[in-house]
Automatic annotation (TrEMBL):
Residue ranges of every copy of the CoA carboxyltransferase N-terminal domain listed in the record: 17-275
InterPro entries: AccD/PCCB (IPR051047), AcCoA_carboxyl_beta (IPR034733), ClpP/crotonase-like_dom_sf (IPR029045), COA_CT_C (IPR011763), COA_CT_N (IPR011762)
Listed Pfam families: Carboxyl_trans
UniProt-recorded name of the protein: Methylmalonyl-CoA carboxyltransferase
GO cellular component: acetyl-CoA carboxylase complex
Region of interest (Disordered), residue spans: 1-21, 31-50
PANTHER family: PROPIONYL-COA CARBOXYLASE BETA CHAIN (PTHR43842), PROPIONYL-COA CARBOXYLASE BETA CHAIN, MITOCHONDRIAL (PTHR43842:SF2)
Coiled coil ranges: none
Highest taxon listed in the record's lineage: Bacteria
GO MF term set: propionyl-CoA carboxylase activity; transferase activity
């Protein structure tokens, strides 16, 4: 008997894909993703005066250095038609590149996809790039142009924002965080920019508000436009939310690049030095003509800053808000410094609520990122008035005091002319920890101006005099000669030296070089409690 042995049929296997065809398909897909949803959406974006997300990233980064990650990610939500609309990228582009040769991370909303609204997948991408930036110790830039939470995804979208806010706070003071507002930003979405270090806005196209004009009208009856409620100029000059404002996106992103060049990569490093041709020991004799000796005459403090810093270049922060104090980033001898200065051209340079807040935030930011502080003092005091007192000038002035006292970076102050009362103390005087304090020979450091002091100290003598005006004039001169002469504070060790204004840049450059390795420790604590 013959036994026939069955031969097993081998299982069928799918043919291996041709690697060349698969690669071609990948390139086609990537090109399609890069173009966006359709040409019409791009035309609509351009018609609004706005660039696409990819075009913005090209302006931000050094040419050809941007690397995108997760470009093929799609949402997995269903309902309300979402299951039939699953575009790649989910409305946000994330990645990293180089800015002036240094690594920077970024995410950019793509308004052409779901109007840039945030859903679960979108949020996960943003969380990813934020975590990478913090782990790598590199700055993070967000290019904001989105319609807020994706309503179709409900509370999941809100949770995505919560994850962004938590990461903003965790990275605060660790890496520089910069928000660039290039379109709408409404509701809870506005809190992420508010938590970052610097906010840029473009006029006409960018708005930020918690509740839009329609809600405002429904609740309060007030009628207002989108720009009137939360446009760039409103936030630059009234609310103080925006630090920088520009007319177009190209100029805005170019300024972001300049800011990044002035900042360190993280809180463990110093800003990279940039050596120019401006000598550190250059004389600043022009200052004697810029600053009037008469303490009552106004002048523009920005001209003083321009004369002192390298090549006359500086980046003013919050230029349009609280103009009675100037905050600027610049370089002296090639190294970044933060300059805080009273502005006699506005409100005589007094400190008020907004000026105190503005300067305090700037001091804290510089201290977080190891940027030395140079304070130029010409202050008549705090602004008096019922509105200021009821508005909490005590609390707000204390913010500036807290910021300076808490700062461990090199701190140098120069009294140009007057420095009266509590405002003198708050503007980084020796008594609150300035490493070095200098003064020009026109300085007047006192509890108050001579006229006011004489009226208080010699009130009875003046009142009893047969010629009160002559007596007051004589006593004012006596008070000035005894307690307000230019060397009074220096004689008591409260000023390290009285210097020739022409030596100001040289003195600053040498002092900053000496303090470069300064070490200062704070008490062992979780954190101080900032006055609010």
């Amino acid at each position: 008997m013959t036994i026939l042995q069955e031969t097993a049929t081998p299982p069928l296997t799918p043919p291996r894909p041709d690697l060349g065809r698969a690669t071609d398909e990948l390139h086609r897909l990537k090109e399609e993703v890069g173009r966006g949803p359709d040409a019409a959406a791009t035309r609509r974006q351009h018609a609004k005066g706005k660039l696409t997300a990819h075009e913005r990233l090209e302006l931000l980064f050094d040419e050809g250095t941007f690397t995108e990650i997760e470009p093929l990610r799609r949402h997995r939500a269903t309902g309300f038609g979402l299951e039939s609309r699953k575009p790649h990228g989910d409305g946000v582009i994330i990645g990293w590149g180089l800015v002036h040769g240094r690594t920077v991370f970024a995410y950019a909303h793509d308004f052409r996809v779901f109007a840039g609204a945030l859903g679960e997948a979108h949020a996960a991408k943003v969380h990813k790039v934020m975590d990478l930036a913090e782990a790598s110790g590199a700055p993070l830039v967000s290019l904001n142009d989105g319609a807020g939470a994706r309503i179709q995804e409900g509370v999941t979208a809100l949770a995505g924002y919560g994850g962004i806010f938590r990461r903003n706070v965790r990275a605060s003071g660790v890496i520089p965080q910069i928000s660039v507002m290039l379109g709408p930003c409404a509701g809870g979405a506005a809190y992420s920019p508010a938590l970052t270090d610097f906010v840029f806005m473009v006029r006409e196209t960018a708005q930020m508000f918690i509740t839009g004009p329609d809600v405002v009208q429904a609740v309060t009856g007030e009628q207002i436009t989108h720009n009137g409620l939360g446009g760039a100029d409103v936030h630059a000059g009234t609310s103080g939310v925006a630090h920088f404002v520009f007319d177009d996106e190209a100029a805005c992103l170019d300024e972001v690049r300049w800011l990044l060049s002035l900042l360190p990569r993280n809180n463990r490093e110093l800003a990279a030095p940039v050596r120019g041709e401006d000598p550190a020991d250059r004389r600043t004799d022009a200052l004697t003509g810029l600053v009037p000796a008469d303490p009552g005459r106004a002048y523009d403090m920005r001209a003083v800053i321009e004369e002192i810093v390298d090549d006359g270049e500086y980046l003013e922060v919050h230029e349009g808000w609280a103009r009675n104090v100037v905050c600027a980033l610049a370089r002296i001898d090639g190294r970044t410094v933060g300059v805080i200065a009273n502005q006699p051209n506005t409100l005589a340079g007094v400190l008020d609520i907004h000026a105190s807040e503005k300067a305090a935030r700037f001091v804290t930011t510089c201290d977080a990122f190891n940027i030395p502080l140079v304070t130029l003092v010409d202050v008549p005091g705090f602004l008096p008035g019922v509105d200021q007192e009821h508005g909490g000038i005590i609390r707000h002035g204390a913010k500036l005091l807290h910021a300076y006292c808490n700062a461990t970076v090199p701190r140098i102050s120069i009294v140009l002319r007057k420095a009266y009362g509590g405002a003198y103390i708050v503007m980084d005087s020796r008594s609150i920890g300035a490493d070095l304090s200098f003064a020009w020979p026109t300085n007047e450091i006192a509890v108050m101006g001579a006229e006011g002091a004489a009226n208080v100290v010699f009130r009875r003598e003046i009142a009893a005099s047969p010629d009160p005006d002559a007596t007051r004039e004589r006593l004012v001169k006596e008070y000035k000669s005894e307690l307000m002469h230019p060397y009074y504070a220096a004689e008591r060790g409260l000023v390290d030296d009285v210097i020739d204004p022409g030596d100001t840049r040289r003195v600053l450059a040498r002092s900053l070089a000496m303090l470069r390795e300064k070490k200062a420790d704070l008490p062992d604590r979780k954190h101080g409690i900032v006055p609010t």
